[in-house]
Specification:
Layout (H helix, E strand, L loop, with lengths): L1 E4 L17 E5 L6 E2 L6 E2 L9 E10 L8 H21 L4 E11 L9 H11 L1 H9 L3 E7 L13 E4 L3 E8 L6 H9 L6 H8 L24 E2 L2 E2 L7 E2 L5 E6 L2 E3 L7 H19 L1
Parallel strand pairs: 3-12, 5-6, 5-7, 7-9
Antiparallel strand pairs: 1-2, 2-8, 4-13, 8-9, 10-11, 13-14
Helix pairs in contact: 2-3
Bound molecules: zinc ion.
The site of zinc ion (ZN) has 6 residues, from β2 and α4.
């Protein structure tokens, strides 16, 4: 996982606007990261009854992926990714559920994306309706999945990314990303952050506020960090061993709390995000 600052003035074709401060939040699922834990030692809270808000995830696969996966394998992959997401959400008592909105294909041969901006630009040329829907419907997300040949990700350091400040409903991923990478990225779209140690090494002397546009400053919460507990970490952490939970002081692993009220309660952050989403969705009906 990695967080970087792009140049202050970033002009590209349709995005002819000066972006004063750009924060690109990227997850790298290192080859060594794995979802591996002792279920006997993971203690989850009793969740209160609450209506779950539905979120829709639209996948767009690079056509080249079909040389390695058939349709059945792609459909199985969608199911697996969303099953992991829903496991993490329910383990963390977050009143939200992920559902598939289906899949489309993207031609990357003549429009090979080089970064998040060009991915969005090219996708807009080929599937404008999907990005318009993502713009209009707060519970609709688009996940562009690039083949190994057309991926711009450096597999060693990053494998998927989001840019919540600019595209609050958009993820770009490499087809090699592990199933739990999807929920990590969707977590970033709710403004969840990495564990404090990782984040501070990524920020160096900067602050998240200084890298976020003014309109979104209020989205940055002090409690929105991942946690390390036992020999593992919560889903937004950089631990080699990942637990299928968001950070929460109400969850323990190997006898240690996987969260902190002041600094590491992504379950609270995602719950607040889900409730706000439910209100927005109801208001649209
Ligand atoms: Zn990340």
């Amino acid at each position: 996982m990695y967080l970087c600052l792009l140049p202050a003035k970033f002009v590209r074709r349709m995005y002819e606007a000066e972006v004063v401060s750009i924060c690109l939040i990227v997850v790298a699922v290192f080859a060594s990261a794995r979802l591996y834990f002792d279920a006997q030692k993971l203690v989850l809270p009793q969740c209160p009854q609450e209506e779950k808000v539905e979120t829709w995830v639209q996948f767009v696969f690079d056509y080249s992926i079909l040389s390695d996966f058939d349709i059945e394998a792609l459909e199985a992959r969608i199911e697996e990714d969303l099953a992991f997401s829903n496991l993490i959400l329910s383990n963390s008592c977050i009143p939200m559920i992920r559902k598939s909105a289906g899949y489309e294909f993207f031609d990357a041969r003549n429009a090979k994306p080089a970064d998040m901006l060009s991915s969005h630009y090219e996708l807009n040329l080929q599937h404008r309706n999907l990005l318009e829907r993502a713009y209009q419907e707060p519970n609709f997300y688009v996940v562009l999945v690039l083949s190994e040949d057309n991926s711009y990700f450096d597999y060693e350091y990053k494998i998927a990314e989001t840019w919540v400040d600019l595209f609050p409903n958009f993820v770009v991923s490499d087809v090699r990303a592990a199933p739990f990478a999807l929920e990590h990225e969707l977590g970033h779209l709710a403004w969840a952050q990495h564990d404090l140690e990782t984040l501070s090494s990524q920020l160096q002397s900067r602050t998240l506020n200084s890298m976020t546009t003014e309109d979104n400053q209020s989205q940055i919460k002090r409690y929105a960090h991942a946690a390390l507990c036992g020999d593992s970490g919560t889903i937004m952490s950089y631990s080699d061993n990942l637990l299928p939970v968001y950070s929460s002081p109400n969850i323990t692993y190997q006898g240690q709390a996987c969260g902190d009220v002041e600094t590491a309660d992504n379950a609270r952050l995602l719950t607040e995000y889900a409730r706000a989403l439910r209100e927005k969705v109801s208001a649209r009906l």
